[in-house]
Design brief:
The complex is a heterodimer of chains A (181) and B (622). By secondary structure, chain A is an all-alpha fold. Chain A has helices spanning 6-11, 13-16, 27-41, 51-72, 74-84, 99-117, 121-148, 152-180. The chains are: A mainly alpha (181), B alpha+beta (622). At the A-B interface, helix 3, helix 4 and helix 8 of A face helix 8, helix 10, strand 19, strand 22 and helix 12 of B.
């Protein structure tokens, strides 16, 4: 039997929560597990105990927070799955993106800048919605590539595109914030 | 081997030992101390039953220190030595303080933090806050009749690392064992949530005397999870007073006023603000020391006009926090109002309009933070009532990062990350043969270092000479459950390890605090000795109790030999704990702690495994 300890838990966030290594994930189940474990390991639960217990509690709670954060977010989760397979999808020197994708990125960015300059919150809201829709389709493809086809090449391509889109989404939100301020 | 005692099922095994813990709301304008008595959180009043302690300290030329109402009475006659709203100076340099010219103090720029020159010498904001905390500690001990086990001290959620560190230093200086620094809106959420058995998404809008916080929380089955927090650590009721103050100066066409007159006008401004809570207009008439006479009427409409931008600032921060949590105003089930400044009608209206619902005002906005802190303190001290299990998951308010080439910030831990949190990132050398690296730690959301707050610098030395870009320096940021940061760095490729922990440069060093503590106790050495011994004894008894309780639950995790060793250490500690040799007690405690380290780790592993197993049962039922 594997010893279930900090070392073991550090190696694999999925194993830490007793979950299968899959992109498709029941987020509610993850939330429940996270709360169950945190309710036992959190430093507040051990504050009245000796220093050694408090240190352990902090290490565990830190690890659980990190694992939860990684698995909860679909992009971080996919990158983590690829990392477990030995692939770093975020490496800069590997950013050969399809030309049409890059062109579309440029168009998006110009539209955001324009809406920001003309303080057009409605069209920024609309862009936010459309981009989210597009991303949810990409995430579905990503889960298929990782879980069903085990096509890591395609998965890393999708992850890179989604990294662009997450960044773009942040820019839209920042523009909205600036317009509303 | 000693036999373990086993109690009757359902019967408490140890004699009831209630640990004395308090919650302290260290506010800009007023401070409070509260505790849990017979399961109820109550605010502890002074000898006249007054719950609030004005956060005012007077340093008299005669060597007396007055705190609270007595100090407040000195404000008009000795403004320079009467420090109000010291919280605004915590962890701040001179350039951070807005409207400095309107304040009657003699400021000095100090290392990392400003200082004030008073009749009793130069004081740091940490020392002044410690004087307030000491008064609260004494109030707590007088009411409870024994030294405190510890205290939970609240800070604005939007306080940065420098301000949090300063607050913790002040508590230590006041001789308080800090169980936890707790964010004010979270404390309020605990008090509100437990009282009303609330479930769902809530916002806490907390406008205090000098700070504004907005926190978005999810309350679900005993877990208070902060989703996002935002605010402004230099925006509060004081700023509304200042707007009225400026309006008076302008309307009455006053020339620059003296410190005494300035203080007088600020007091009148505050009174007018409070009067407008229940009235449509407030008369302001006052004769100044200069002989000038002011006679004005401030209407709600004018007050609304001159304070509009302040109100808008809070709404903008609220909108941002909601977006961070990926929520809309209509998702929020209730808005809890905290802080005396939320009594202003224009605040109530703006919040109601933004959220599309009337805010919740059924808790005393002055007391709710202290009550929540007391509840948390009670739990942390280990006074647990079964069935009353709840947990708080909080976040850091501002991103943490470090300076890279060109004065840019590389973020390591993003804002709103749930604490405790650790994150590591690798960096490399810039020049061939580089043997040292300077790491500049900053906090804030902006891209340029110059726009963020500098928290401290650390140097990693002893990197073996290599070509540029070959070294791998791993920098690790760890934020603990108090929201406090520690940074360490180490070179990875060579196996040679250079490692340092950073202690932020803005705060007081451990030595400085120790020296100050000693100063304060020198005239009461006997007292201090007895207190330290008493504390060691209490601590030792707690350790024995905790170990016994762990053995009762999980002795199966130990071999017979391991258990015998632990039993022996307990026996040794018990033999010395009744004596008055503090060193012997501390040594025996160390030995017992060492003996139980591995046991503690195994128990924690088992506990996590059980949490996972618990899930499969729940799923079978579902």
């Amino acid at each position: 039997m594997t010893t279930y300890d900090l070392e073991f838990a550090r190696k694999d966030h999925f194993a830490l929560f007793g979950l299968p290594r899959r992109q498709a994930l029941d987020v509610e189940q993850l939330e429940r597990l996270y709360r169950n474990i945190q309710a036992r390991v959190h430093p507040d639960r051990h504050a009245h105990l000796p220093e050694a217990n408090r240190r352990l509690a902090m290490q565990w709670a830190t690890l659980i927070n990190e694992a939860y954060r990684t698995l909860k977010d679909p992009l971080a989760r996919a990158r983590y799955l690829l990392k477990l397979e030995g692939i770093d999808a975020g490496l800069e020197n590997n950013t050969a993106m399809p030309m049409d994708f890059l062109t579309r990125q440029m168009e998006w960015r110009e539209a955001v800048e324009e809406a920001r300059a003309s303080e057009d919150a409605d069209s920024l809201d609309d862009m936010h919605r459309r981009l989210r829709q597009e991303m949810s389709v990409q995430y579905a493809y990503l889960a298929e590539a990782l879980d069903e086809r085990h096509d890591l090449q395609r998965a890393s391509g999708l992850v890179r595109q989604l990294m662009f889109h997450e960044k773009l989404l942040q820019e839209i939100d920042a523009a909205l914030e600036a317009v509303e301020a | 081997m000693a036999l373990l005692q086993i109690a009757e099922p359902g019967e408490s095994t140890a004699p009831h030992q209630h640990r004395l813990a308090v919650g302290i709301d260290l506010g800009t304008t007023n401070s409070l101390v509260a505790t849990v008595r017979s399961g109820m959180a109550v605010v502890l009043g002074d000898e006249f039953g007054r719950p609030l302690l004005p956060s005012v300290v007077h340093y008299g030329a005669d060597g007396h220190i007055e705190v609270g109402f007595a100090a407040q009475a000195c404000q008009a006659i000795d403004p320079k030595n009467t420090i109000v709203s010291v919280k605004r100076f915590m962890g701040r340099g001179l350039k951070d303080i807005a409207h400095r010219e309107a304040l009657p103090y003699d400021f000095i720029e100090g290392e990392g933090m400003l200082r004030l020159r008073t009749a009793q010498g130069i004081k740091s904001p940490v020392e002044i806050s410690a004087d307030i905390l000491r008064a609260l500690r004494q109030r707590g001990e007088a009411a409870l009749g024994d030294p405190l086990t510890g205290a939970v001290i609240t800070v604005p959620a939007y306080f940065d690392d420098a301000q949090r560190q300063a607050t913790k230093d002040a508590a230590r200086l006041a001789g308080i064992n800090v169980l936890r620094l707790l964010n004010e809106p979270t404390a309020a959420a605990i008090a509100y949530g437990l009282d009303n058995a609330a479930e769902g998404l809530y916002a806490v809008y907390d406008l205090g005397g000098g700070t504004f916080d907005i926190s978005i929380l999810r309350l679900s089955r005993g877990i208070f999870q902060v989703l996002a927090t935002g605010g402004d650590s230099a925006l509060g009721g004081d700023d509304f007073d200042h707007r009225i103050f400026c309006w008076i100066i302008e309307q009455a066409k006053l020339r620059p006023v003296s410190a005494e007159d300035g203080r007088l006008l600020l007091t009148r401004a505050r009174e007018a603000k409070e009067y407008l809570t229940a009235h449509a207009e407030a008369p302001i008439s006052v004769r100044l020391g200069s002989g000038e006479y002011v006679d004005l009427t401030l209407t709600s409409a004018i007050f609304g006009d001159i304070s509009r931008t302040l109100v808008q600032k809070t709404i903008a921060a609220t909108r941002k926090a909601l977006r961070e949590a990926q929520l809309k105003p209509e998702d929020i089930k209730g808005v809890v109002m905290v802080g005396g400044a939320t009594r202003m009608p224009q605040i109530q209206r703006a919040v109601a309009e933004f959220f599309g619902q009337e805010p919740l005002n059924n808790l005393d906005p002055d007391k709710v933070v202290a009550l929540g802190a007391a509840t948390q303190a009670n739990l942390l001290a280990g006074n647990r009532i079964s069935g009353d299990e709840w947990l708080l998951l909080d976040v850091i308010p501002l991103s943490l990062g470090l300076e890279t080439m060109g004065g840019l910030v590389e973020k390591i831990i993003p804002r709103n990350a749930t604490i405790p949190v650790a994150r590591a990132q690798d960096f490399t050398t810039f020049k061939d043969g580089q043997t040292a690296m300077a790491i500049h730690v900053v906090q804030g959301e902006r891209e340029l270092v110059s726009d963020c707050r500098s928290l401290g610098r650390l140097e990693l030395r002893g990197i073996p000479p290599m070509v540029a870009g070959a070294a791998r320096i791993r920098v690790t940021f760890q934020v603990d459950a108090d929201g406090l940061l520690s940074v360490s760095a180490r070179e990875q490729t060579t196996g040679i390890e250079a490692r340092i922990e950073v202690k932020p440069s803005y705060g007081l060093s451990d030595d400085e605090i120790a020296a100050m503590l000693k100063d304060g106790m020198s005239h009461a050495a006997d007292d201090a000795f007895r207190r330290a011994l008493r504390e060691a004894q209490v601590e030792a008894q707690r350790l024995v109790e905790a170990t016994r309780s762990a053995l009762r639950e999980d002795a199966a995790l130990l071999s017979t030999l391991e258990q015998a060793h632990i039993d022996l250490c307990i026996a040794r500690l018990e033999a010395v704990v009744i004596g008055d040799d503090r060193r012997a007690i501390e040594e025996a405690m160390d030995a017992l702690t060492k003996a139980t380290n591995e046991f503690a780790a195994r128990r924690m592993n088992q506990s996590v495994q059980r949490a996972l197993a618990g899930k499969s049962i729940a799923e079978l039922e579902a």
